[in-house]
Design goal:
Blueprint: H1 8-29, H2 36-50, H3 55-74, H4 77-82, H5 84-89, H6 91-115, H7 120-126, H8 133-143, H9 147-171, H10 177-197, H11 201-232
Helix pairs in contact: 1-2, 1-3, 6-7, 6-10, 6-11, 8-9, 8-11, 9-10, 10-11
Length: 235
């Protein structure tokens, strides 16, 4: 069985087929918890465990999926370009909201982790939870976190946001489409943006802006926010 997964084409094809079937399943059932990304991850993990296949073997083909993510992110520039007039008009509001979201996201996760007894290393690993994985990993490494843990947490946060994000926003009275999509990008990064794209390119564009600006702010401000928090709590 390991030999099959040494074939990169098989790995890529199998992953895409599972994801496509998961999409069809959610579209047919409409069940919110059947998020295609979540279902795909669970099925692949289960399959690897059942057949005792090392992740390193799967990743020989999976690396090509990672590579395809880069042009996929670049492709987000198309809806951004189409919404440029709106973005320019709302530039100040976007920057202020994303700055607030960045600081709130860092402070809240640090305080909650501290109250639950997490170690300094774990806290630093959780700090960049709301930014896209490549940025989060670099932030985690620079502040003394555990990069693999950070990557896992980022994925979990993104899936949670994609599954429950818009529902939570509606329940809390956030009805403005721009506010909703910016919040999704800020809190649930690329996975939240993918969910926003399902609504419309406009939603996806604003969610992309939220993801990008929050990523920049978090990369710059995370060490300083942690330093300020260290004045009041022991980090």
């Amino acid at each position: 069985m390991n030999g099959i997964f040494l074939n990169e084409v098989v790995v890529v094809a199998a992953t895409f087929i599972i994801y496509w079937l998961a999409q069809r399943l959610q579209a047919k059932t409409g069940f919110i918890l059947l998020n295609p990304i979540l279902i795909t991850i669970l099925i692949i993990i289960l399959f690897l465990m059942i057949f005792n296949i090392n992740y390193e073997v799967y990743q020989k083909g999976g690396k090509y999926i990672d590579f395809l993510l880069k042009p996929a992110v670049v492709a987000l520039g198309v809806p951004l370009y189409k919404q440029m007039k709106v973005i320019k008009k709302q530039a100040l509001n976007i920057v202020i909201s994303q700055l607030a979201g960045c600081i709130t996201g860092i402070v809240s996760v640090v305080l909650i982790a501290k109250l639950m007894g997490a170690s300094r290393e774990i806290i630093f690993s959780l700090t960049p939870k709301s930014v896209t994985t490549p940025i989060a990993i670099e932030i985690s490494r620079s502040i003394g976190g555990i990069a693999p843990l950070t990557a896992s947490v980022v994925i979990v946060v993104g899936i949670f946001g994609a599954v429950f994000g818009y529902t939570i926003l509606k329940l809390t009275g956030v009805k403005n489409p721009m506010s909703q999509s910016l919040s999704m990008g800020n809190a649930a990064h690329a996975i939240g943006t993918s969910k926003s794209m399902e609504f419309s390119p406009a939603f996806g564009a604003m969610s992309s802006i939220g993801m990008i600006v929050n990523g920049i702010f978090t990369a710059i401000l995370a060490p300083y926010v942690l330093k300020l928090l260290g004045i009041w709590i022991e980090l």
